[in-house]
From TrEMBL:
Topology term for the membrane: Multi-pass membrane protein
Superkingdom of source: Bacteria
Record's keyword terms, sorted: Membrane, Transmembrane, Transmembrane helix, Transport
Name by which UniProt lists this protein: Cation diffusion facilitator family transporter
Organism of provenance: Lactovum miscens
Cellular component GO terms, alphabetical: membrane
Cation efflux protein transmembrane domain residues: 13-223
GO biological process, one term: zinc ion transport
Family matches, as Pfam families: Cation_efflux
Subcellular location: Membrane
MF term (GO), any: monoatomic cation transmembrane transporter activity
Length: 312
């Protein structure tokens, strides 16, 4: 079960890599034959997305390195680090480049597009491919969303950074393609290149907005987030037993999407102190049974209850 869960999200990454590489080539050909600013921005977008997947695959490889003398809890957060690079350097960089290119077209009075039919064909092809990639992402989300949360709540709470990147990437790609279709159509109908350039500007701004949202999420994951409410309830339930007088403190953090660190301090009844090791082992066993598919590092300290104890 654990290995199966650890592979979640990667099918979406491979699907997106193939889709974006294929679409990027077609868009660059379309730009060279038409001169469309929106097509240029879309080509940059797809090239950026292809690099995204390469970085996510590298992050996944680093995350599987396991424990070492230096990284004693493994390198699971490597995925979050590489996801942050994707959001910062590639998403935002692609957005900035797109805005600069579109602005140049907006201020260039003679801007026009050629071969509009070819552009529509390539954009339609891109929408079909990106939609196929997004369907894979939705399938991965369905498998990961065990609590059947609403989509955006799941994306907000998930610790699987790769699925968040792919969903944001595929969604923004489809929106960008639709904007490009809209801009190209208006330019073709009116003969005014402003609409093509303006749609390119909107695509660049879209990428920059997505970047900011992802950076915010990955910062939180990289710094360290506690477990979900459902998992926390499972952990607390393991401590609620007759032998435990007081639960002094419980702290949790995700070391990766599937690895959890649990640190707790408890006060055992005086009559049970002779069996403290057995009690701790039972608590740990119950937590691991309740958190099926997750690797848990559990550290429990036995102490005396003090009502003035600071939990900070």
């Amino acid at each position: 079960m654990e290995n199966k869960i650890k592979n979640h999200g990667m099918a979406a990454v491979f699907a997106a890599l193939f889709a974006n590489l294929l679409v990027a080539v077609s868009k660059f050909i379309g730009f060279l034959l038409s001169g469309s600013a929106a097509m240029m921005n879309e080509a940059i977008h797809s090239l950026v997305d292809t690099a995204n997947e390469a970085l996510l695959l590298l992050g996944n490889k680093r995350a599987k390195r396991g424990q070492s003398d230096i990284h004693q809890f493994g390198e699971g957060r490597a995925k979050y680090f590489y996801s942050m690079i994707v959001a910062t350097l590639l998403f935002f960089g692609g957005g900035v480049i797109g805005v600069i290119e579109a602005w140049d077209k907006l201020t260039h009075q003679g801007h026009s597009i050629e071969n509009p039919i070819l552009i529509f064909v390539i954009l339609t092809f891109g929408i079909i491919i990106e939609s196929s990639s997004l369907r894979v992402a939705f399938r991965e989300i369905h498998e990961l969303n065990k609590q059947n949360l609403p989509l955006f709540q799941f994306l907000r709470n998930t610790k699987h950074s790769e699925i968040l990147v792919i969903f944001a990437e595929d969604t923004s790609a489809i929106i960008g393609l639709l904007l490009a279709v809209f801009g190209t159509a208006l330019t073709f109908i009116t003969g005014n290149g402003f609409y093509d350039a303006f749609s390119g500007l909107l695509i660049g701004l879209l990428l920059m907005s997505v970047s900011i949202l992802l950076i915010r999420e990955f910062y939180s994951l990289l710094v360290g987030e506690r477990v979900s409410n459902e998992d926390l309830a499972v952990i607390k339930a393991a401590f609620e037993r007759g032998e435990v007088e007081h639960i002094i403190n419980i702290r949790t953090t995700h070391l990766s999407a599937d690895e959890i660190l649990v640190a707790a301090k408890i006060d055992i009844k005086n009559s049970e102190e002779a069996h403290d090791f057995d009690i701790v082992n039972k608590i740990e066993s119950q937590i691991r049974r309740g958190l099926t598919g997750k690797k848990c590092y559990i550290y429990i300290e036995i102490d005396e209850w003090d009502e003035n104890y600071s939990r900070r």
